[in-house]
Amino acid sequence: MDSVLRAGAMYVALMVLFKIAGRRSLAELTTFDFILLLMIGEATQQALLGDDFSLTNSVIVIVTLVAIDVGLSLLKQRSRWISRLIDGEPTIIVENGKLLHERLRRARLLEADVMEAARSSQGIEKLEEIKFAILERNGKISVIARDD
Amino acid sequence: MNEDSDNADLRSREHPIREDMTYQLKVWRFERVGWYVLVLVLLMGLMGVFSRGLLSSRDVRSEDGKVRVEYEIFHRNGSTNSMKITLYSAPDSQVELELAGQLLEGFSIETLQPEPLRSRSSSQGIRLWLQTDLDGQATLYITLRGDGLGFYRSQVSSPGTNGIKLVQFIFP
């Protein structure tokens, strides 16, 4: 019983933590982000398994995590409200070559982040060449170039 | 003017995606408040609210000064902490110590040093007999592992003295 509770509690705790961290946190993995992710995994592992390293326990934990995940995706399909709560919504951050500064500030983004995405996805050099830049739900920035 | 452009920035757009900025602003506010909560948890951790720190370590004496207990208020399930009990009595004599209450329900005693001269169960817990040194002092070091969850109230006493009441909390 406690394995299921542990896994459930950990799932919820991590979900809330990463909601607080925001969608950008682990979207563009730098080398250090990757290491951070490994450390978080390492810290989680003990709490998930406790002192029971049996095959049964680890299978129960994995089954619980996958079941919650699938359950949530089913819920998301049924309810737009839940889908929005869990995944969030995309946000426009550049409109017709102009940065929406207030949005960038609140999303904790820099112009450099936008330009990096513009360069890597569209080969765009200048802000004016961007028609729209959108901060997607998964934290990636997608860029739509101007036509001319 | 600045405020106007801020407001324009935060208005919902319909193209190329349909936005709901009211909701997005709530999300950003949640992230901001969440960050404060994280910092608060971090500070609480440093202060010892989650065991081992200023707020958790206690050093108490009974009113007559004959029993002294150094212990942690906050424990975590599965982790070990030490407890030090000191009794003051006649030099080079045997002194009785009673651990009673919920201590043994919430914790398992991993080590008990030095080994007591005798021990037996009593109606409320366990009784141990210790040998005092030439200064009339007997010290018992206990390693406790938190097994339960929540509050545990217990008493540490010795016959003829006021005991000490302990309240300890075990985190999941």
Major beta sheet, strand line-up of chain B: 3-11-10-5-8-7
Low-confidence stretches of chain A: none
Helix content of chain B: 10-25%
Number of strands of chain B: 11
Rounded average pLDDT of chain A: 90
The number of distinct structural domains of chain B comes to: 2
Write up what this structure looks like:
The complex is a heterodimer of chains A (148) and B (172). Chain A has 148 residues and is an alpha+beta fold. Chain A has two domains: 2-87, no CATH class; 91-145, 2-Layer Sandwich (CRO Repressor). Chain A is built from six helices and four strands, in the order ααααββααββ. In chain A, helix 1 runs antiparallel to helix 2, helix 1 (2-21) crosses helix 3 (55-78) and helix 3 (55-78) packs across helix 4. Chain B is an alpha+beta fold. Chain B folds into two domains: 2-47; 57-171, Immunoglobulin-like. Chain B is 23% helix and 44% strand. Chain B contains three helices and eleven strands; from the N terminus they run ααβββββαββββββ. Chain B has helices spanning 2-9, 21-47, 103-106, and strands at residues 57-61, 67-72, 74-76, 80-88, 94-101, 107-113, 118-121, 125-131, 137-146, 150-157, 164-171. In chain B, the strands form two sheets. In chain B, strands 3-11-10-5-8-7 form a six-stranded mixed sheet. A five-stranded antiparallel sheet of chain B has the order 1-2-4-9-6. The mean pLDDT of chain B is 89. Classes of the chains: A alpha+beta (148), B alpha+beta (172).
